[in-house]
Amino acid sequence: MSTLSANLLELLRSDVVAWNARRDELPEAPDLHGLDLSGADLAGANLTGANMVGTDLSGANLTAAELGGADMTGANLSGAVAADADFTGTHLANANLSGAVLTLSFLTETDLDHADLVGADLSGAYMTAAHLEDADLTGARLAGAYLAHADLTGAKITSADLAGTDLTDAHMPDGAVRG
User: Fold this and answer.
1) Which of 31, 50, 70, 92 falls 20 to 30 Å from 20 in CA-CA distance?
2) Within 10 Å of residue 26's Cβ, how many Cβ atoms?
3) Name one Pfam family in it (predicted).
């Protein structure tokens, strides 16, 4: 279980502004792995570099949260709202982001290999050089997303909305049509 103290965890859940002030004083990135933060309001939270492996963030509000460099391998973000969040360099391999709202989010160089993005809204997301190998993007909304140099090898993009998506130099699944 997490090494984060109960007091700090309660602070994160109840007062993001106070959490962010306290976060700057922590000697290392917080360990939130395996915690249940489903439905939590974490809008604007600074979770940069946090260990969030297997964390349940289903239905959480992560709008404008800072998650760059976090390890969120296998995390559950199904139905989460993370519009305008910064996931730059985050590890989201094998994560469940089905139905998540990630509009205008930054996912540059993010590892989304084998991630479940079924029905996710990634409209206008910045996904330069993102790794989406074998990701399931079935029914995802990628309209206006920037996927230049992204790796979509083996990704499922059936019924995905790619209108206006920049796929410059992206590695696409065999037989895929570039939008």
Assistant:
1) 92
2) 11
3) Pentapeptide
